[in-house]
């Protein structure tokens, strides 16, 4: 409750042009936003994309009615920015996937621990999926959104989310198995 | 192991090894605040330009409408003709009666008809 109240006070302050109020909102959600953008788009231009999300948040704060809706609204805004970036840079996306593949095939010698390998493997596995399947997997399995919330965010039926999730998990499992990881 | 268990294991593996999130640049917050200022200025400027465009458009429309309404119909008529002297800005020469007769008879004869016979024929029909 106290959290909601402080969030409301930040929102009110930010609406009136208070920089500290806006920065408080940014600090509360930056990690989530960065994480989601990395998993959806990769780490290229991450700062620019995060900036775009928070500029939209800042601009749209005046139309936000309840502080409780802020979290899902920021998620939605992040998703919209990711979609816009994706539309703008189809070429870059292909390059990103290629980069991930090359990076995984030739890891540097200083980072050969098992945990690093597993992280790279997960990154590579996610990159091997097409955007629609990767997005569902990231939102449901990694960001722990419900099927309904994911469907609403992606503007698709819940049944489509379920079927994409089923296929994405199947493909990911096959990919990991081909790399020697049995799950 | 059933299907749900396999899914759980996969999701657990993914969550345990999710990709690293690169740290933001050290001056990111400052850049973000600067960007908000820039964007608000740009929005205001766009608003002003929008108003100016509307004003300019309205003015143009008003001027065109005035021109259409107040333009004299005679000037707009496609059948209207101007005296040749107005077009060429050269006054026509004043001719004596002999010169006129000579000019007309020359013109008739140049097409193969003597001026006098054409005159006579004209009288016969009358």
Could you explain the architecture of this structure?
- The complex is a heterodimer of chains A (183) and B (126).
- Chain A is mostly helical.
- Chain A has helices at 2-15, 19-41, 46-60, 70-88, 90-105, 114-128, 131-142, 147-154, 158-178.
- Helix content of chain A is 78%, strand content 0%.
- Chain A is elongated and about 55 Å long.
- Chain B is mainly alpha-helical.
- In chain B, 72% of the residues lie in helices and 0% in strands.
- The radius of gyration of chain B is 45 Å and the shape is elongated.
- The A-B interface holds A 19, 22-23, 26, 30-31, 34-35, 38-39, 43, 46-47, 50-51, 54-55, 58-59, 115, 118-119, 121-123, 126, 137, 141-142, 169, 172-173, 176, 181, 183 and B 6-7, 9-11, 13-22, 24-25, 28-29, 31-33, 35-36, 39, 43.
SSE topology:
The complex is a heterodimer of chains A (183) and B (126).
Chain A: H1 2-15, H2 19-41, H3 46-60, H4 70-88, H5 90-105, H6 114-128, H7 131-142, H8 147-154, H9 158-178
Helix pairs in contact in A: 1-2, 2-3, 2-4, 3-4, 5-6, 7-9, 8-9
Chain B: H1 3-16, H2 28-70, H3 73-76, H4 84-88, H5 97-110, H6 115-125
Tally the helices of chain A.
9
Order of helices and strands of chain B: HHHHHH
Backbone shape of chain A:
elongated
- The total count of strands of chain B amounts to 0
